[in-house]
Amino acid sequence: MQLSTRDYKVKDAKLSALHFCMPHQPAIAVIKLMRTHNVSAIAIREKNKVIGIWTESDCVRAQAHNGDVLRQPIRTLMSTPVHTISDDSALNDAANKCATLAIRHLIVVADDDTPLGLLSLADIVGNQGLDHYLNLKLIGDHFDHRVPKVQGSDNARVVAQHMAKSNTHAVLVEQQQHVGIITATDVLEMMLAAQGQCCWPFASKELVTVSCEDTLLHAYRLLHQHGIRHLLVTASKESQRVKGVLTLKHINTEIESAYLSELEAVLAERDCALQASQKDLYLANKIIAASLDGIMITDAQGTILQVNPAFTRLTGYSAEEVLGKTPRILSSGTHDRSFYQAMWQSLSQQGVWQGEICNRRKDGDTYVEWLTIIEIKDKQDSDLVYAGIFTDITERKASERKITKLAYFDDLTGLPNRRLFKDRLSVALAHGQRQHQRLAIMFIDLDHFKGVNDSLGHSVGDELLKQVAKRLQRCVRSGDTLARLGGDEFTLLLNEVADIDEVIACAEKVLAQFKPSFSLAGQAITITTSIGIAIYPDDGESMETLLKHADVAMYRSKDLGRNSYQLFKATMNARSLERLTMSSRIKQALVNDEFELFLQPIVDCQTTQLCGAEALLRWQDPQLGMVAPGQFIPLAEELGLIIDIDKWVITRSCALLAQWQQHTHFSGTLSINLSAAHLCHHDLVDTVTAAINEHGVSAEQLEIEITESSFISSFSQAREVLLALKLLGVKVALDDFGTGYSALSYLTKLPIDKLKVDSSFIAKVPDEYGNSEIVSAIIAMASSLNLLVVAEGVEKPCQHQFLQGLACDYVQGFLLGEPCSITDFNNRYVYPCATSTS
């Protein structure tokens, strides 16, 4: 038995088209789809993901157990999990997977899991070229003797039950001395016909028969010639007595089993032959034919005697082109004379040589191969031959280089990464210590980079980082190292620093690179940077100390207003410690329930009647006292604690609403502000739902306030979350309107109930012409869109009167009420209101 040596991949096979249905579709619709496209399997897809598969066999089993399956949704009947295989996998791996899982279909996917098609066991076998093997096998040893029989009057369910019980794909049908056959495909046709109809009209009567004496190859050709999957098997060519059924599955299984078994045997023979250094070229022919490695055999003078098909595939030279020539035909000219001398010395002394060698293909391309040369000498023969076995490792070498680059260089900017920077810093410190030379480390951190990411999206943020890297490279001297540590953090290592003025000049040069704006997404974006500098040995002698001090100096630069540089000073450590202390205190504040809600009233603009309140977060620290949000919210966002704080606010607000609903008649809304990080968080809707259900409050009294920056970078996801909140009954307000992008399309595409005009506009009305017109326009636009308007920051009677004249809906500000504790708010507004109402 000869095996094809081509390295077949799944993508080399002819795939069947993959047809899809939705999980809610009834079985009858899916069956019709199978018949329309004449396929034996349908994939069930939900949200672009294949979640199940439905085959003819599944249909038969379902019909066998429950006759009334046609109206059931396919989700309840489909087979899961779905078994997939990469299109770059070996075809043999696909065959093994089918055999191991006892399945007949695999969904072929690309690297990104996109479904490409359906691969069946028949598709795999069709690529093996093993027809000659089937000519050696008789049908009598491979068909199914236990084929169930049914009567022509039986219905689809009876037929399906027989198939399922015997685990077969066909049954014989008897009708008044006549015999037919019904397959799984026929069962599908029966299920689509009138319920309870007998099976005889659906049976194939003109049956193709073979005898036990025929070969599997004859049967295989008949199956393909007639386009069928089953043959009746008779006792002999003379006798028409039916003994059973032969299916394509029997043949495919035999081919695959034989292929894997034979390949394993051939490879084992190859290894034994090489280890024993036997000269038996007849046995070597089998090894050579089956090997995926290129093999070349030469005589003692180097004349090529034999090559295998893999040699041709790897080098491009056919056997006819190289036989009688020497291996020099492959020489790339890369290696010098000493390389080949060392090779032949190893062969003469040890009888074997292994190593990497660069050769040239027929088309002129060079490639790297791993070559093993073995000296073969028969004890009864003085002739000497050499066997060269090689594998193309060009891609592996390229992958190794890529892995090395990924290990030491930043993939986005191409700059050295943290690992390489530390390696070079370690070398620089050792050199500086020996030569008594100074060096400097700069930490370069972009100011407000998160705002660019949140407002314009991560792709724009990545482009900004690449442009920044190019500008910073203009500041790097020969021998210095510019690296990206991650995010928006860059570092610059200055070697052999003469004096501090040299470092300062470099820092000023870096700052100058940020003066011109950056062109991003068709916009001119201006961004600054904060720089921290540590000098060796003045600010530390170890890598850890220098990096820490440069980081501390950088944060000091941010604290002093950003867009500047700071040299490390010992006093900065105190500020760093304060920052760490604050971080720890925020975490403890959540545990110790130190946060508190303050409320600011929201009133009807015309009547000044209380209509609601905005919840404002305060932190009552036992040691620090009352801490304003501006002091801890940015740090909480940086530490990733803001979502936990948001959850506390949501839960506490719902508890307050429950208290109002139980003890008063107050029905106003309570507004809470959500962080941008939480809006698109996967559990926001669940958190709100749980809080509402836990406290039994009316969702209509809860209002979520968001800003434009919180959804600008992930609009679709934000819209989905807001729609889910609206389904609960929660109201949505757009805060700080007018200060961001204020794109009108957002107002029509997002489920917004209310606009809150930013206080910066209200502060300048009615005196300033431009602001007054903007406020008037916002209120008029909101009215036309059926949106309510809240004017924030109302502090003067003239401002209130101006807004009344514009028919503004609600106002909020110190004129109407300052933020106060829950107790004070209840005493001033809620309970008096409840009393007067009652």
From TrEMBL:
Its cofactor is Mg(2+). The keyword Kinase applies. Keywords: CBS domain, Kinase, Transferase. Residues 437-570 form the GGDEF domain. Residues 286-326 form the PAS domain. It comes from the Bacteria. CDD domains: CBS_pair_SF (cd02205), EAL (cd01948), GGDEF (cd01949), PAS (cd00130). Residues 579-833 form the EAL domain. Transmembrane segments: none annotated. NCBIfam families: GGDEF, sensory_box. This is Histidine kinase. Residues 353-405 form the PAC domain. GO terms for molecular function: kinase activity. InterPro entries: Biofilm_reg_signaling, CBS_dom, CBS_dom_sf, EAL_dom, EAL_sf, GGDEF_dom, Nucleotide_cyclase, PAC. The keyword Endoplasmic reticulum does not apply. Residues 78-134, 203-262 form the CBS domain.
